[in-house]
Amino acid sequence: MPENALFLLAWFLPELLKGIISLFIIVDPLGNIPIFISLTENMQKAERRKVFRTATLTGLFLLLAFALAGQWILILFGITLYSFMIAGGILLLIIAVRLLITGGLREEDASPESVGAVPIGCPLLVGPGAITTTILNLQSSGIVVTTVSVLVIFALVWFILRFIDPIYRFLGKTGSLVISRVMALLIASIAVQYILEGLRHFGPV
Predict the structure, then answer these.
(1) CB contact at 8 A, 138 and 70
(2) Euclidean distance between CA atoms 69 and 19, whole angstroms
């Protein structure tokens, strides 16, 4: 193997590993499992699979878009990342309140695909943190490393969500109900944090 190829490989693998680890920590599919359970506890197994499939595809396409275009997407719509954080926080806060009051998100005309896209795909899987990390990876490691790391992360997300049903069976209806209420408080806390982080950059908070 030529020296240039060896040098490139020696640079590529550590950068790729760094990108995968940083993105996995932010997306946090394992830590979000209780939230996914609380958002889909009233759905049938087939509906949950549709939700998770939509969430995975939504998150993948969103992060790939930011991996390929980065900050130009925000510039195109004339928004800052901090405005995105505030908007995402408000959305999550509304979701948390609905979970606490009604015990679920489903409406008569709500499809599993809509729940999968929002809020699971965005902003839970792909929120301001994941977008920021992707943009930073793009700037520091380049488009190839960033794109591959996004693909690896969402392959892991799909695998984790694909085998979430045994967790449902283990928890049962009562366990899922308890987790739903506790996770609603956690979602509210995440929402407030997003809002505060966004506001901090527009003035003292």
Answers:
(1) yes
(2) 17
CB atoms within 10 A of CB 168: 17
Is 154 within 8 Å of 60 (Cβ atoms)? Answer: yes
List the Cα angle 117/152/58 in 5-degree steps.
10
Residues 106, 152: Cα–Cα separation, whole Å: 31
Rounded-to-integer distance, Cα 45 and Cα 169, Å: 11
For residue 41, what pLDDT is reported? 74
Q: Beta-carbon neighbour count of residue 10 at 10 Å?
A: 10
So what's the pLDDT on residue 107?
52
Examine residue 135 and state whether it is found in any structural domain, yes or no: yes
The low-confidence residues of the chain, meaning pLDDT below 50, are: none
CB 112 within 8 A of CB 55: no
Question: Is there a domain that residue 205 lies in?
Answer: no
Range of the domain at 128: 3-200
- Secondary structure percentages of the chain, helix, strand, coil, to 5: 85, 0, 15
Total domains in the chain come to 1
Residue 133 CA: distances (Å) to CA of 137, 141, 174, 189: 6, 11, 37, 21
Could you give the dihedral angle defined by the CA atoms of residues 166, 25, 63 and 61, in that order, rounded to the nearest 10 degrees? -10
Is 187 in contact with 95 (CB distance < 8 Å)?
Answer: yes
